[in-house]
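Long-time lurker, first post. I've been practising inverse folding by hand and with some scripts of my own, and I keep getting stuck on stretches where the structure tokens seem ambiguous. Below is the full token string for one chain I'm working on. Before anyone asks, I'm not after the true native sequence, just a reasonable design that respects the backbone. If someone could post their per-position residues I'd love to compare against what I wrote down in my notebook.
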């Protein structure tokens, strides 16, 4: 069959082309596989399932010949991070200790995408068990930035971000535990959405009530975030947060109406804790503020250092969960682990009951603090990260260095902006908004009240109409090349 390069096309374009009979699903898959081979130097793919994708596409083509009906993602090639369970397709968690693991079931969100007739073609790279905001592992190596291979893709959903940036399908399923979806989206110049706690079922982690990790969506086009989210937002009986919503699944297109910017009260926080902000990043933030002002927003600035964001709370809760899950692996197979993951687990071992008890209470304090901010605004705006992507060889436990000057711990110096909202459950999005003088993407970060994902996506559409970010490809990867 003739390969069809659908890179840069929206979800709706894929679905219409397939369901109308203009293009076979198999042709879309063959074009995608050609592009995937071209992307190999950037290392976004953990496990490629070419034959599985071909078989799924052929089955769709047969159904279409018979006049069957189709789901909302019919014929759309999708990928999923290598932390998300996929039936019959290796889920290694980027770990040598799990390199032969083939699940017998799908995570519910994957099952919902499959039921919507998406074609799963690959698992994308992540650090071991998603433990850091950089994407490298002993099993899969380094995943590199699509705009400059000397820089990181961010993480832990780095492979998902690189895949979307290079045109390997219009949407990718990510995870986000402290910004792990939004950070690589900013580093790679794509859109990354973390929905409200409970919007998307995430029934696999053992601590359901202490959940900090979310399944998210990355996309080139903002509307595709809506298409992906709408097809993965039905509740699951083993995820109490999805049951708590007590409402219909997320619907797209959003019907709430009204301009996403005009008249909206936006609180800007340049620095969460008073730390360093890269001049190019700040310049792009100022440009975003100018755009918002022209669109009629009501803007005010807030000194982030006035708020106790309880940033260490997320670390304590995450580490406690990690050591509970992986203590046996640490004890019995430490030598097979990424040293930075072993060190992460050691941090978990050092947490005592007093710290954990305090953290659980402080999580509620953090939630109330953010709720208090929304009493006076409709949206929060921050940078996504303090600088463009660090070097590809950045170590999680070494300082962030800019112009030869160490700025301190990577967590405290680079990605304070995303962490609080995993604790508080608020939806958040990273929007690509230009590049640095060195050509690296820069992202801005909006946070909204619970269940306001539709507003965030419509906001992203307004920004995309201004910037044309959805049409931009890294060198050599434009549609048709």
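-- Answer (accepted) --
I ran through it position by position. Result:
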């Amino acid at each position: 069959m003739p390969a069809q390069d659908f890179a840069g096309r929206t979800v709706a374009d894929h679905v219409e082309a397939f369901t109308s009979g203009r293009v076979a699903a198999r042709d879309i898959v063959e074009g995608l596989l050609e592009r995937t081979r071209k992307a190999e130097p950037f290392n976004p793919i953990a496990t490629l399932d070419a034959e599985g994708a071909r078989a799924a596409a052929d089955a769709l083509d047969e159904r279409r010949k018979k006049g069957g009906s189709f789901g909302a993602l019919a014929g759309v090639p999708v990928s999923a991070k290598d932390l998300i369970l996929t039936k019959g397709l290796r889920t290694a968690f980027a770990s040598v200790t799990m390199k032969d693991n083939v699940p017998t079931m799908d995570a519910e969100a994957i099952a919902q995408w499959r039921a919507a007739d998406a074609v799963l073609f690959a698992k994308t790279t992540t650090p071991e068990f998603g433990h850091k905001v950089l994407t490298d592992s002993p099993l899969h190596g380094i995943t590199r930035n699509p705009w400059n291979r000397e820089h990181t893709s961010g993480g832990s959903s780095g492979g998902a971000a690189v895949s979307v940036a290079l045109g390997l399908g219009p949407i990718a399923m990510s995870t986000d535990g402290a910004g792990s979806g939004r950070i690589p989206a900013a580093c790679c110049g794509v859109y990354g959405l973390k929905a409200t706690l409970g919007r998307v079922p995430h029934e696999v982690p053992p601590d359901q009530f202490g959940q900090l990790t979310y399944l998210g969506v990355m996309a080139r086009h903002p509307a595709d975030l809506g298409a992906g989210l709408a097809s993965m937002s039905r509740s699951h009986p083993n995820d109490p947060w999805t049951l708590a919503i007590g409402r219909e699944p997320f619907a797209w297109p959003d019907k709430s109406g009204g301009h996403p910017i005009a008249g909206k009260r936006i609180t800007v926080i340049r620095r969460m804790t008073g730390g360093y902000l890269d001049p190019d990043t700040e310049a792009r933030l100022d440009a975003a503020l100018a755009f918002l002002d022209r669109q009629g927003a009501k803007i005010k600035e807030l000194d982030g250092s006035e708020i106790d964001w309880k940033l260490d709370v997320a670390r304590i809760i995450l580490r406690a969960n990690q050591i509970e899950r992986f203590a046996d692996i640490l004890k019995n197979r430490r030598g097979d682990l990424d040293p930075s993951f072993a060190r992460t687990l050691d941090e978990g071992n050092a947490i005592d009951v007093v710290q954990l008890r305090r953290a659980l209470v402080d999580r509620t304090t953090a939630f109330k603090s953010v709720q208090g901010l929304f009493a006076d605004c409709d949206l929060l705006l921050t940078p996504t990260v303090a600088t463009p992507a660090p070097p590809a060889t950045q170590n999680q436990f070494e300082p962030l260095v800019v112009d030869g000057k160490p700025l301190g711990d990577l967590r405290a110096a680079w990605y304070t902006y995303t962490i609080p909202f995993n604790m508080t459950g608020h939806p958040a999005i990273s929007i690509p908004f230009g590049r640095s003088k060195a050509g690296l993407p820069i992202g801005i970060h909006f946070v909204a009240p619970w269940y306001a994902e539709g507003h965030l996506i419509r906001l992203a559409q307004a920004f995309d109409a201004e910037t044309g970010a959805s049409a931009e490809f890294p060198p050599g990867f434009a549609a048709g090349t």
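A couple of notes from the structure itself: The two ends are 19 Å apart (CA to CA). Residues 270 and 282 are 8 Å apart (CA to CA). Happy to go over any region you disagree with.
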